[in-house]
Design a protein that fits this description.
By secondary structure, the chain is mainly alpha-helical. The chain is built from three helices and no strands.
Length: about 100
């Protein structure tokens, strides 16, 4: 089943609006667990991009698939780096006062 371009654009815009509204109402203390969940989703996107790249036949499909894998990998790695930095901020500094 092919999704028409306008329907896909409508779904994308609706998802962006709902995502903005949901993230905007999350308390600050829950941002780190939310980042961990989004990293999980980015991993799924990475696997999907690799599957799409594996089924590509033409040069254009291979190029788009490669760009998709590179962006998904960068997004997943960046998410884990940001989560690690945020977790470092919550560690207590009791051991540093000796």
């Amino acid at each position: 089943m092919m999704i028409d371009g306008f329907i896909a654009l409508y779904i994308f815009m609706l998802a962006a609006f709902v995502g903005h509204e949901v993230i905007g109402r999350v308390p600050v203390i829950l941002h780190t667990p939310l980042m961990s969940g989004s990293n999980f989703v980015h991993g799924i996107v990475l696997v999907g991009a690799m599957v799409a790249l594996g089924r590509a036949d033409t040069t254009l499909e291979l190029s788009i698939g490669f760009i998709g894998v590179a962006l998904a990998a960068g997004n997943a790695v960046g998410g884990y780096v940001v989560t690690e930095r945020m977790l470092e901020m919550f560690k207590s500094s009791k051991g540093d006062k000796k």
